[in-house]
Design a protein that fits this description.
113 residues; mainly alpha
Length: 113
């Protein structure tokens, strides 16, 4: 996003973006482990919001970075949407009565035939 003529502030923003994306990838890895509990996780907390805010600041500072920042913001939004869907599916746990009813339906079908 930044060329060689950028000041120290932009270099620190690039470093911060790199660290945020590293932390986000680490979060995704933790969330895909079998022992991850999506019910008790702070799903709304993630690094992508900070990434978008940095990119928005870059976007307002540098007009020529508009296309790249917009593409990155759209990519971040897509990642947030996909992560939200995946975590919602992980958090959707059926109650035990659900499985009892399924077993009763299956056994009644077996007995009927």
């Amino acid at each position: 996003l930044f060329d060689n003529t950028e000041n120290q502030n932009n270099i620190s923003q690039t470093a911060r973006l790199t660290l945020l994306m590293r932390d986000y990838v680490s979060r995704l890895i933790r969330e895909t482990r079998p022992d991850f509990n999506a019910v008790h996780a702070k799903i709304g907390d993630n690094e992508l919001a900070a990434v978008v805010s940095i990119l928005f600041a870059v976007n307002s500072q540098r007009q020529r970075a508009l296309a790249a920042a917009d593409a990155a913001q759209n990519g971040a939004k897509t990642l947030m949407d996909l992560r939200s869907e995946r975590l919602a599916k992980l958090a959707a746990v059926f109650p035990p009565i659900h499985y009892i009813i399924l077993a009763l339906c299956a056994s009644s079908i077996i007995v009927a035939f």
